[in-house]
Design goal:
alpha+beta; globular
Length: about 100
Amino acid sequence: MRLSWFENSDNVAYVEFGEFVENFGKEVGVAHLGDKIEEFRKNPIPEGIMITGTKRTALKIFIPDLVFDKHIDMGESVWIFIGEMYPAYCIYWKE
């Protein structure tokens, strides 16, 4: 994962948790993805976590500001990274 890739807005999709997580979890084959994201949000670790889906998919859930030495836009939020062939998903919550 390269910081410059995440700083390019063409590589990022900003998604609202409630509208995104259920459908995306089905697409990648990760049951209870919303619960896993919420748990990580409450107890983040700097290296993030890897989750494997049933559809040959691996997701990295992380918080960019904990990974990189530089703040990026929305870097304090939870993000999902699948690889550079897909957008990174920056998740936000309606509060």
